[in-house]
Design goal:
The chain has about 260 residues and is of the alpha/beta class. It has a domain at about 10-185 and about 215-225: TIM Barrel, CATH 3.20.20. The chain is built from 10 helices and 10 strands. Strand 8 (about 150-155), helix 6 and strand 9 (about 175-180) form a beta-alpha-beta unit. Helix 1 (about 25-35) crosses helix 2 (about 50-60). Bound molecules: NADP nicotinamide-adenine-dinucleotide phosphate. NADP nicotinamide-adenine-dinucleotide phosphate binds near residues 19, 102, 206, 223 and 229.
């Protein structure tokens, strides 16, 4: 599995496995299968209600804890230190590899300061943001002692945010793509451009979409409950898109989000 180096020297798998909308019961099986398929990054959140199942799957998978990269996200700005302890308990871990503020919560500077303290004492190996745009993002940049390592945003072929992604690169933040397959919207799996390019490489539309993100320096975290799709979504490191293909894929950008939030 390919890794990316964060701005603090921590290595993060380029590709991860997302578990939004998977029940706490089902997630145990899904995460176990994802790890069997070779995924080493699991993306959960307090809000998903399945940290407990993720923790169980990781504890029982037979790999040492340091072989798995666990991301979770804060649901609320109240009692941050306590809620991190609760996540650690559910995840059955002494540390979290990456903690994100799930969305702007108003008192973000205070939340960030608490996260910095937990980062400095080793409970968090990396810290970052999700769904932070405009002044919410600039406020964190202004007040932070620890520059965020990762920013998770809606990113897929229909929502490319090219200028922002370039800014993250200049600032040293790794962009991570939520809904990298647009959650199936806009008929992504039968999109003619994605399918045509896929056919030239013996790949599916999903694989082209994920490969495109990786070649743009973006780390995708696709979700699926099907083992064959887990394997499919992982098989993106054995081909390369050329300049013409990248140009055609750039043209798929719609210039707006598909989910009606965080635009
Ligand atoms: N930070 C945030 O605010 C935020 C927001 C949204 C998501 N996320 C994270 O990002 C992860 C991924 O986003 P997402 O779950 O919204 O959407 P996604 O990964 O873009 O797409 C998932 C959908 O695509 C289907 N799918 C996956 N691989 C496929 C393939 N190869 N062929 C055909 N269908 C396929 C899945 O169906 P099946 O499961 O039936 O296979 C599911 O319906 C989440 O799980 C979560 O961890 C974060």
């Amino acid at each position: 599995m390919q890794n990316v180096m964060l701005n603090n020297g921590v290595e993060m798998p380029t590709l991860g496995f997302g578990v939004y909308n998977i029940s706490n019961r089902e997630v145990v099986h899904c995460v176990r299968e994802a790890i069997e398929c070779g995924y080493r990054l699991i993306d959960t959140a307090q809000w998903y209600g399945n940290e407990d199942g993720v923790g169980r799957a990781v504890a029982e998978c037979g790999l040492p804890r340091d072989q798995i990269f666990l991301t979770t996200k804060l649901q609320s700005g109240r009692g941050v230190a306590e809620s991190v302890e609760e996540s650690l308990r559910k995840l059955r871990s002494e540390y979290i590899d990456l903690l994100l503020i799930h969305w702007p919560m108003g008192d973000d500077a205070t939340i960030w300061a608490t996260m910095e303290r937990l980062y400095e004492c080793g409970k968090l190996r990396a810290i970052g943001l999700s769904n932070f745009y405009g002044s919410d993002f600039e406020n964190i940049l202004r007040c932070c002692k620890v520059v965020p390592q990762v920013i998770q945003q809606e990113l897929h072929p229909f929502r490319q945010q090219t200028a922002l992604v370039e800014r993250y690169r200049q600032l040293g933040l790794v962009p991570q793509a939520w809904s990298p397959l647009a959650c199936g919207r806009e008929n992504i799996f039968t999109n003619p451009t994605l399918m045509r390019i896929g056919a030239a490489h013996g790949k599916t539309a999903a694989q082209v979409a994920l490969r495109f993100l990786v070649q743009c320096g973006i780390c995708p975290i696709p979700k699926t409950t099907h083992k064959e799709r887990m394997a499919e979504n992982r098989a993106i490191f054995d081909f390369s898109l050329d300049a013409n293909e990248l140009t055609d894929l750039r043209a798929l950008d719609l210039g707006h989000g598909l989910f009606g939030w965080y635009d």
